[in-house]
Write a structure and sequence with these properties.
- Helix content is 0%, strand content 49%.
- With 124 residues, it is an all-beta fold.
- Strands 2, 4, 5, 6, 9, 10 and 11 form a 7-stranded mixed sheet that branches. Strands 1-3-8-7 form a 4-stranded antiparallel sheet, with no helix packed on it.
- A hairpin with a 4-residue loop joins β7 (68-73) and β8 (78-83).
């Protein structure tokens, strides 16, 4: 069964950090592009970051560049999103998603599999 499970969300103060995890099962990361998305209350879902099947290709939304870092551990079949310098506007449910592709490009796809999300709240 193909599954993605996010974890690591929580309450953090502005300027703080969190690391989100996306654990994959039923497939290996070298076959998929993984993306992180988020949806804030009352807003549309937006792309945050992604990583290609090789792990060499990454992409970030402009507002996350320099603050967020995506990485993966193939041995654990897990993708991470390190989030630093968090702002209240980063508050959202964060989802990871996957699509099967061996392309070096990780963005611009319709994602096939989604996790249930993890809530990140940035507040003092």
């Amino acid at each position: 069964q193909l599954q993605l499970v996010e974890s690591g969300g929580g309450l953090v103060q502005p300027g703080g950090s969190l690391r989100l995890s996306c654990a994959a099962s039923g497939f290996t990361l070298d076959r998929v592009a993984i993306g992180w998305f988020r949806q804030a209350p009352g807003k549309e879902r937006e792309g945050v970051s992604c990583i290609s099947s090789s792990g060499a290709g990454t992409n970030y939304a402009d507002s996350m560049k320099g603050r967020f870092t995506i990485s993966r551990d193939s041995a654990k079949n897990t993708v991470y999103l390190q989030m630093n310098s968090l702002k209240p506007e980063d508050t959202a449910v964060y989802y990871c998603a996957a699509t099967f592709t061996l392309s070096p490009r990780c963005h611009g796809y319709v994602m096939d599999y989604w996790g249930k999300g993890t809530l990140v709240t940035v507040s003092s």
